Design the sequence.
């Protein structure tokens, strides 16, 4: 297809670069709804701070954003409780898998960072703040719809239910944190909210649009609306860089050089500060649980644009 803009040409070139790898990696198989996703799909979208958009492949196909949601719940929680959040969750890479429990005991129930599951549960607890889970989930959904400027974003009920049916490890983490007094709401309510946020279904175009404020100092460049303050934006980007890919965060920084957050649904949101927000989706995962082809695509994009922050 003839590209209609330089950015579209860029994305088509990236798509060409990863073509030989399409379908590689293993789709997450801990729940049926993820296990049956065709690993050959690939979507890529970008949204620049100047308002240009481009997308290729399966960019309109919705997928389970899973842990990419942790970026948005962190933003929401920082808006709600501010720096007080940092008394309850750390800012160091964990060097452990996403669902690891081992550090929690030694560190007295203060999770290493907001992007491992333990930390995300604490963040979700801060959002919940005594309200029923349905109210918090509705708030998170409305937030994503507003950021993406698209009402066609949903919570996939089947995924949410399967997460609940199989979420024994998350339940263990939540109970353990609660035992240290670092969850304020009932464990069941925190988990229900968390499982629903993981089950948010979005496509690459929506995800790139929703992340755009992170590329623009916390202000949505298209509406002028301030989502979060500039300092928090820098910090969220720093955490995405250092902790966004679990124990493979160092490798992602090395290869791509952009703040990014992955999810086991195969999505990655990457931020090129002051330039663009990029979302990629390819369901096959590498050993660390990050999209294998998605990371290759971002590596190619970063090389072609020179957008690495380093
Ligand atoms: N729902 C998954 C879990 O909490 C999310 C993991 C991920 O995307 O990294 O186990």
Sequence:
């Amino acid at each position: 297809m003839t590209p209609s803009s330089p950015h579209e040409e860029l994305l088509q070139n990236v798509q060409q670069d990863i073509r030989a790898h399409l379908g590689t990696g293993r789709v997450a198989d801990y729940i049926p709804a993820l296990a049956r996703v065709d690993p050959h799909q690939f979507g890529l979208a970008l949204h620049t701070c100047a308002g240009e958009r481009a997308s290729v492949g399966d960019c309109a196909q919705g997928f389970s954003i899973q842990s990419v949601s942790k970026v948005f719940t962190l933003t929401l929680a920082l808006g709600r409780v501010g720096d007080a959040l940092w008394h309850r969750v750390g800012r160091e890479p964990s060097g452990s898998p996403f669902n690891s429990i081992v550090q929690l005991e030694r560190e007295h129930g203060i999770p290493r960072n907001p992007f491992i599951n333990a930390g995300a549960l604490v963040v979700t607890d801060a959002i919940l703040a005594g309200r029923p889970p349905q109210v918090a989930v509705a708030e998170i959904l409305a937030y994503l719809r507003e950021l993406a400027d698209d009402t066609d974003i949903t919570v996939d009920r089947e995924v949410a239910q399967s997460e609940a049916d199989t979420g024994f490890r998350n339940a263990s983490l939540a109970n353990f944190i609660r035992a240290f007094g670092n969850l304020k709401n009932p464990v069941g309510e925190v988990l229900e909210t968390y499982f629903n946020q993981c089950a948010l279904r979005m496509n690459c175009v929506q995800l790139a649009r929703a992340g755009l404020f992170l590329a623009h100092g916390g202000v949505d460049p298209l509406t002028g609306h301030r989502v979060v303050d500039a300092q928090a934006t820098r910090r969220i980007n720093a955490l995405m860089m250092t902790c966004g890919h679990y124990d493979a965060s160092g490798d992602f920084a090395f290869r791509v050089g952009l703040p990014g957050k992955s999810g086991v649904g195969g999505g990655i949101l990457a931020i090129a500060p002051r330039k663009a927000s990029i979302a990629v989706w390819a369901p096959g995962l590498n050993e660390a649980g990050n999209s294998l082809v998605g990371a290759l695509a971002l590596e190619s994009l970063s090389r072609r644009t020179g957008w690495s922050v380093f």
Remarks:
- The first helix runs from residue 6 to 18.
- Residues 97 and 247 are 6 Å apart (CA to CA).
- The chain has a mean pLDDT of 96.
